[in-house]
Amino acid sequence: MSMSIKRSVLAPLAIVGAAGLVLTGCAEGGSGDTGGDVKGQTVHISGGITGSEADLLNQSFDQFTKDTGIKVEYTGDKSFEGNIVTKVKGGSAPDIAIVPQPGLLKSLIDTGEVKKADDTVSANVDKYWGADWKKYGSEGDTFYAAPMLANVKGYVWYSPAQFKEWGVEVPKTWDDLITLTKTIQSKTGTAPWCAGFASGDASGWPGTDWIEDLVLRQSGPDVYDQWVDGSVKFTDPQIKQAFDAVGTILLDKNYVNAGFGDVKSINSTAFADVAAKVADGTCALTHQASFLSSNFLDVKTKDGKTPTVAADGDVYAFVLPGLQEGATAVEGGGEFVAAFSDSAAVKKVQEFMTTPDFANARVKLGGVISANKGADPTLASSEFLTDAMKLLQDPNTVMRFDASDLMPATVGSGSFWKGMVSWVDGMPTDQVLSAIQAGYEN
Question: Most-buried pick from 58, 80, 114, 355 (CB within 10 A)?
């Protein structure tokens, strides 16, 4: 699922002053010049990042502005995903758009208005990200948009103190995770897991993350890629295998839904609400992306304190283990920087956003990570985010982009999301898989 939807729910901490402004068209600011002195030019950027995160993004350009004289103005728009294509077609594109979904990027490229990335941007992506990230920002053989920030999915959040109390350890394989689940249930007499699928029109997306993680771990990256491109169907036994594995946890009344109710309460529980239950000890385990760390800033432990996110703190997370010990495969997400102007100022901004300098500037301000291999993970604002960033930078990590974000919208953000809700409500797996696959026909 796209990060802008998640951010709009997770972090409505503050609204930037410019959030109410309409997107500024390419004719304004620095877009009109095609070369020469860029000092004094303004480059307008738009995206779905809002609130305090938008403020921090604007601050990331402070040194760049001092060095180049180019002013960068980012405007967050909560409706960005729903209206950016219309704005571009109507001639009101920003200079640069921060696009959270490869599928949405393709729709923008199809308008014919996205500019091809220049050689410097291309070379930086080759050096600092690699072929997979470059592929996500390309259409055919043409490269358009460089990655910006990233997030890691497939974490299992837990309480280190509770693990110590129960005498259990972080599992190294999927079978170990199931054994851990049984052990906690036996020791406590309560459900170990909590989950929430409720997210307004996007309800169901946390379930798709579960399935994507299991497809990647059980069947491997090649099958995952074939599933994304549609050559492996949802009705394929390898996809059903993933549903069956997830079902051993999410459909077992003895294992969910800690602090909220029964299995069906998953659909009525807001996805971010699980953080409070993990923090106060009600829920032992929950599956969610790296961005859940920000939610622990707004909840309390059973002692009434803000939980510390650390390996020896109140809460921490481990990567959902694979079938074999030591196999590191993760699902992730990120944003892409697409330009609608080829002015000199816009090119300089787009180039800067591919550098370790930009990644370090934003990461240092807190709350985010980057997959830029030249960036310094020790600048991340927590031990957890440093670990997550190192994981993304590790050449031995098998990383794949969120599958539902890569699938056609009628499936990825349509029948797949809805199918997960129906599955939790009791629809048989075979029927759910057929219904999701039918999304390709719409």
Answer: 80
